[in-house]
Amino acid sequence: MPTPLTREDTTVNAITAEGLVKTFGSGEKAVKAVGGVDLVVPEGTVVGMLGPNGAGKTTTVRMLTTLLAPDAGRAIVAGHDVVKEPQAVRSKIGLSGQYAAVDENLTGRENLWLFGRLYQLSRQQASQRAEELLEQFNLTEAADRTLKTYSGGMRRRLDLAGSLIVHPKILFLDEPTTGLDPSSRLDLWDVIRERVADGATILLTTQYLEEADALADNIVVIDHGHIIAQGTADQLKAQIGGERIEVVVRDAEALDTAEQVLNLGSGGQCVRDDHTRKLIVPTHTGSKGLIQVIRDLDEAGVAIDDIALRRPTLDDVFVKLTGRHAEEETPATEPAGRAS
C-alpha cells in the first residue's frame, strides 16, 4: 500500500501523486489506462517519465493538470489538490501537450498575446511578454506570419513559449520534441535547461531515451499504466550490471572459438549473436579487461572487425524492464483516438 500523503509531501515536493487510477469505458470494454501511479517530483528538479506510446504517460499528465479527473487516488500539485482545487492548480502550472495548442489562422505574435490575455495579463503586459518569448525562442522574424506558414518545429517552439507566458512554477511537457528535427530538439533542450536554472520544476514525458538521459534528474519508467522502475539514469543502468565488452568477429567460422575464449574469462557469461557476429561479455575491470580480451583473442588466432568497451544505456534498461525497445508501442490501453 502507498504511504498516505503528509503535509511535508505537499510542501517539499512540487508534485505528489498517490494511487492514481483512470479507466476508460465500462463493463467488458473497460480499459484501465493508469493502474495506480505513485509519483513524487521534488521542487526545482526535472523528472522524466519514460515509456512507449500507450504506456499511460499522457493520461497521467492529464490527471495532474486537472484535464481528467482520476477515478481513484489523490494528487497534490503546487500545494493544491487537483480535484478539490483545480483553478488554484491551473494558476501555477504550464502545459505543453503532444500537439501544438495554437491557432493557425493567427500570427505567432497574436497567439502569444492571446495566451497572455487568457492568463489575465493586461494588454501591455501580454504584448511585452509576447516580445520576450518570441526573441527567446528565435521566432522574431516569423512573428507576424500566420501559423499556416510555420514548420512543425516552429509550431512546437511557439506552443512551448505559450506555456511559459506567466513564468509557471511547475511545467508539464508532454513529449515536447516529438516530430522535431535534431537541431530543433537540441534547441528545446536548451530552453528546458534555462527554465530549470530559473527555478522551475518540470515533469517531462518522452519516448526518447537520450532525452531523459540528458535532461532528467530522476526517471520513472511507466508501462501498461504502472510505474515499473524509478531512479537516476545511473541507478537504473546499474540495475543491469556494469560495463561490457562488445566484439565483432571477422569470420563467422571463428565464432565458436571466440565464444570459448570469452567464456573462460567471464565464467560463461558471454552472449552471442550469430547474425551480427557479435559477442558481448561483462567486465568489472574496465580498460584492463578490454586489453586482456584483445590479447586472448589474438593468441587464439581470432581476427576481429570491431571491439569496444561500453556502459549500459537506458535502452538496455528499458529492454530488460519491458522486453522491448522504447520506440515500440504498448498494446492499446485506451480507446482509439486517445493519446496515452
Automatic annotation (TrEMBL):
Q: Which domain of life is it from?
A: Bacteria
Location in the cell reads: Cell membrane
Q: Name one GO cellular component term.
A: plasma membrane
Membrane topology type, per the record?
A: Peripheral membrane protein
Q: Name one GO biological process term.
A: doxorubicin transport
User: In the record, what terms sit under GO molecular function?
Assistant: ATP binding; ATP hydrolysis activity
What the entry lists under Gene3D superfamilies is as follows: P-loop containing nucleotide triphosphate hydrolases
Q: Which InterPro entries match?
A: AAA+_ATPase, ABC_transporter-like_ATP-bd, ABC_transporter-like_CS, ABC_transporter_ATP-binding, DrrA, DrrA1/2-like_C, P-loop_NTPase
| Residue span(s) of domain ABC transporter | 15-249
Task: Name the UniProt key words of this record, in alphabetical order.
Answer: Antibiotic resistance, ATP-binding, Cell membrane, Membrane, Nucleotide-binding, Translocase, Transport
Q: Which Pfam families match?
A: ABC_tran, DrrA1-3_C
SMART domains named among the record's database cross-references: AAA
Q: Which family does it belong to?
A: Belongs to the ABC transporter superfamily. Drug exporter-1 (DrugE1) (TC 3.A.1.105) family.
> What is the official name of this protein in its record?
ATP-binding cassette domain-containing protein
Species: Jiangella asiatica
